[in-house]
Amino acid sequence: MWAMSDLWYDSYMAHTAQITVGERGRIVLPSSIRAELGLTPGTRMVLSTEPDGSLRLRPYRTVADHGRGLYADTEGGSLVAELLADRGSDAEREE
Question: Pick from 20, 31, 41, 63: CA 20 to 30 A from residue 75's CA?
Fold first, then answer.
């Protein structure tokens, strides 16, 4: 029986399903979940382990989009511009 403190789990999780690990460690995502997330054959996914022993499966595109621009702006401007300026000044000193 579920405790009252477990109600957050049901409201937090959009969709849950019980699955079984098959031969060679394969799992099959239920079609309702694949449809809900727009997953098609060939969709690249990122699988990570969590400290509590759970697995987290995310579309690669989501992970890439989240990291995009993470270091784009700093107090001194773009890290890329800073790196190029450093390389340019190093090259001038070598000449």
Answer: 63
Q: Is 10 exposed, middle or buried (0-12, 13-18, 19+ CB in 10 A)?
A: exposed
Pick the CATH number of 4-94 from 3.40.50.2300, 3.40.30.10, 2.10.260.10, 2.30.40.10: 2.10.260.10
Chain centre distance of CA 4: 31
Residues 15, 35: Cα–Cα separation, whole Å: 12
Q: How open is the CA angle 26-32-43, to the nearest 5 degrees?
A: 55
Instruction: Convert the pLDDT of each residue in 54-69 to its tens digit.
Output: 998 888 887 777 666 6
Mean pLDDT of 10-22: 75
